[in-house]
């Protein structure tokens, strides 16, 4: 039990290595999805979180299995970090019976109640009130659980955001509103879509704490989320976290990215890559060596390769199941 | 048996369910000390406390969504939309979340929630507080839709809705709240999806929903004096719909009048009509079926116009008389 980087969450070096592996799994997963989609092997649409690995991995690491999340349509990373099996996730994208949703949800709806994932959402801002409902369950049942709602910057312009934050605030619910501000809601720059300087300023309107952090700094994400989670567990209500980050890819497959410059993209890739920053920090602190880091990366890559194989060889969803699960018996 | 009002019957079901199961709780605007806009939850906060009778801010999206999240994680929420017109603000959570989650998740979740809401006209509240929008949710796979007309049905069907593991939309009618009927004390459950023949008859089948059931029964009284004996069928639940009872009644009478308060165009009256013509009952029709439904206008404020905008007893009587002349 070594703790080379002191942190209030009490994460050991072993934990940090795991988180580092999760970051690579997220990156390899989404890069692989990009590739499979281009090859026509999976269909639908994709929203990739390459470049946003620290927000998901860092926040997911301080949640317990019994805590809940609501994920976004760009939610593969959030889902992996919460502990969902990447094999089942990949199988879902292939539309197989072994998928997280038996092939009926796809990328935008991956859910896994066993690990507390109440589901990704194709409706921007749709997950906020659902997380509030989970927080309410925790409070009414006296369970020491929290609900963390992931959402993007654009979602804070939705009515559901404001209604949900207000409700969670007045009822002191154990909910964390975690905004991944990747600078663009599809093509809409956050600078053009709101006049507030920081999205966390919006917390003031509801009498709760709001904090803006560097979302590409893994330890900062861990520390901030942990504080918010502990506060929620103490019954002191919600926190709004704005984590500044950047998606390296377009919004979805059809995005020519005309709304941003190559220079801007290069700057985020080269200067602010969250995985490289975590690696440098961990090596400097003695969490692992360069060789160990490389070993972890290779294992993550292999896990994703295996997931593709698992997905490909899983049985295709039978047409006969079409009418199953519309209603509970 | 004692006679109580529809509003009291709804309150009894809510209270009995809450006493029986701690996972049942309520949320909605002004449902606490105020007792709800129509007094349905009057006195409940005194018995169950603010933790279980949760008065919310005016936030329909958050109310519905919180119910979805709570239902998914182990509670059985009942939320009240103060007027059914406000469903417009809550629809994402009802249509895109509650209705679809089970299917989208491959059956790995259940959403046991009830949305209660008063609909319909007749109070002079004009276009934004008088609509009958039950058809909107009847169109969405994954939702069950109930529209009780009597106090007896309201209590038994509400109990059924609360113990059901699906999202159930429960449309009450403002004008029904003060109506009374014989209602047993204690819990009883009326199965969802079973129509009720409110009056047995031989000449014409009148299929009526919600408040129109009462109007159809009044029309039956008038017509009985003219030796026209109508059968009044109340589907009670729109989804799932008891098609068989409707079909068998039309086979027996050979004539059908459908009466809904909701606007005629693309309304549930069209669904009921299609059940009759798509099935063997079609062969037994000896006259074109008749649909009486809401006028295709936003609900007007003026009382005369408001009355004219939805079917009345005299319209049902006239439609039946005309049908009888077909023989």
From TrEMBL, chain A:
Gene3D superfamilies: 3.40.50.970
Taxonomic superkingdom: Bacteria
CC cofactor: thiamine diphosphate
Domain named Dehydrogenase E1 component: residues: 27-318
Keyword Oxidoreductase on entry: yes
Protein keywords: Oxidoreductase, Thiamine pyrophosphate
Short name of any one Pfam family annotated for the protein: E1_dh
InterPro entries: DH_E1 (IPR001017), PDH_E1_Alpha_Subunit (IPR050642), THDP-binding (IPR029061)
Protein name: Acetoin:2,6-dichlorophenolindophenol oxidoreductase subunit alpha
Organism: Candidatus Enterococcus lowellii
Lineage, top ranks: Bacteria, Bacillati, Bacillota, Bacilli, Lactobacillales
TrEMBL record, chain B:
Claim: Oxidoreductase is one of the keywords in the record: yes
Chain ranges of the Transketolase-like pyrimidine-binding domain: 4-179
Alphabetized Pfam families for the sequence: Transket_pyr, Transketolase_C
InterPro entries: THDP-binding, Transketo_C/PFOR_II, Transketolase-like_Pyr-bd, Transketolase_C
Source species, domain of life: Bacteria
PANTHER family: PYRUVATE DEHYDROGENASE E1 COMPONENT BETA SUBUNIT (PTHR43257), PYRUVATE DEHYDROGENASE E1 COMPONENT SUBUNIT BETA (PTHR43257:SF2)
Keywords: Oxidoreductase, Thiamine pyrophosphate
The name this protein goes by in its record: Acetoin:2,6-dichlorophenolindophenol oxidoreductase subunit beta
Keyword Iron: no
Cofactor names: thiamine diphosphate
Gene3D superfamilies: 3.40.50.920, 3.40.50.970
């Amino acid at each position: 039990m070594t703790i080379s980087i002191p942190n209030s969450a009490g994460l050991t070096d072993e934990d940090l290595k795991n988180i580092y592996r999760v970051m690579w799994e997220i990156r390899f997963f989404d890069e692989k999805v990009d590739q499979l989609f281009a090859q026509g092997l999976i269909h639908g649409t994709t929203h990739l979180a390459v470049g946003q690995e620290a927000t998901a991995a860092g926040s997911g690491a301080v949640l317990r299995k019994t805590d809940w999340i609501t994920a976004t349509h760009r939610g593969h990373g959030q889902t992996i970090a919460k502990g969902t099996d990447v094999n089942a996730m990949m199988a879902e994208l292939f539309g197989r019976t072994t998928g997280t949703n038996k092939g009926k949800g796809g990328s935008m709806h991956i859910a896994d109640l066993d690990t507390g994932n109440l589901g990704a959402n194709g409706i921007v801002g749709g997950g906020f009130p659902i997380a509030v409902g989970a927080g309410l369950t925790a409070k009414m049942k006296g369970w020491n659980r929290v609900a963390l709602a992931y959402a993007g910057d654009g979602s804070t312009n939705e009515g559901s955001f404001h209604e949900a934050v207000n409700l969670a605030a007045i009822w002191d619910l154990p909910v964390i509103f975690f905004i991944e501000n990747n600078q663009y809601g599809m093509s809409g720059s956050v600078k053009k879509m709101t006049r507030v300087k920081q999205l966390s300023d919006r917390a003031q309107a509801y009498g709760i704490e709001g904090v803006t952090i560097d979302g590409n700094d893994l330890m900062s994400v861990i520390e901030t989320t942990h504080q918010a989670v502990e506060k929620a567990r103490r019954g002191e209500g919600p926190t709004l976290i704005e984590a500044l980050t950047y998606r390296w890819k377009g919004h979805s497959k059809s995005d020519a990215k005309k709304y941003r410059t190559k220079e801007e993209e290069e700057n985020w890739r080269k200067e602010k890559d969250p995985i490289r920053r975590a690696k440098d920090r961990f090596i400097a602190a003695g969490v692992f060596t360069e060789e160990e880091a490389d070993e972890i990366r290779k294992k993550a890559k292999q896990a994703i390769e295996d997931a593709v194989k698992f997905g490909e060889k899983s049985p295709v969803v039978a047409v006969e199941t079409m009418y199953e699960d519309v209603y509970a018996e | 048996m004692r006679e109580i009002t529809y509003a009291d019957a709804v309150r009894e079901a809510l209270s009995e369910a809450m006493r029986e199961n701690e996972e049942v709780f309520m949320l909605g605007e002004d449902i606490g000390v105020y007792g709800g806009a129509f007094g349905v939850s009057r006195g409940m906060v005194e018995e169950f406390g603010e933790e279980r009778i949760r008065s919310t801010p005016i936030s329909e999206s958050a109310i519905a969504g919180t119910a979805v999240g709570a239902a998914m994680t182990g509670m059985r929420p009942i939320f009240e939309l103060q007027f059914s017109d406000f469903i417009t603000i809550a629809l994402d959570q009802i249509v895109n979340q509650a209705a679809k989650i089970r299917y989208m998740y491959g059956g790995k979740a259940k959403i046991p929630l009830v949305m209660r809401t008063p609909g319909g006209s007749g109070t002079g509240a004009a276009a934004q507080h008088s609509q009958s929008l039950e058809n909107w949710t009847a169109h969405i796979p994954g939702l069950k839709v109930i529209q009780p007309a009597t106090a007896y049905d309201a209590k038994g069907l509400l109990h059924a809705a609360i113990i059901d593991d699906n999202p159930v939309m429960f449309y009450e009618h403002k004008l029904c709240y003060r109506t009374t009927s014989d209602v047993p004390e204690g819990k009883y459950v009326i199965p969802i999806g079973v129509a009720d023949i409110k009056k047995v008859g031989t000449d014409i089948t009148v299929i009526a929903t919600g408040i129109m059931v009462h109007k159809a029964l009044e029309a039956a009284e008038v017509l009985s004096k003219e030796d026209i004996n109508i059968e009044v069928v109340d589907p009670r639940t729109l989804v799932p719909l008891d098609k068989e009872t409707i079909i068998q009644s039309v086979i027996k009478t050979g004539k059908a009048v459908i009466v809904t308060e909701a606007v005629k165009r693309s309304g549930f009256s069209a669904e009921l009509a299609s059940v009759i013509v798509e099935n063997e009952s079609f062969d037994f029709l000896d006259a074109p079926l008749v649909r009486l439904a809401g006028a295709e206008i936003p609900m007007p404020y003026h009382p005369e116009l408001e009355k004219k905008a939805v079917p009345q007893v005299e319209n049902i009587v006239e439609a039946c008389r005309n049908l009888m002349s077909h023989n």
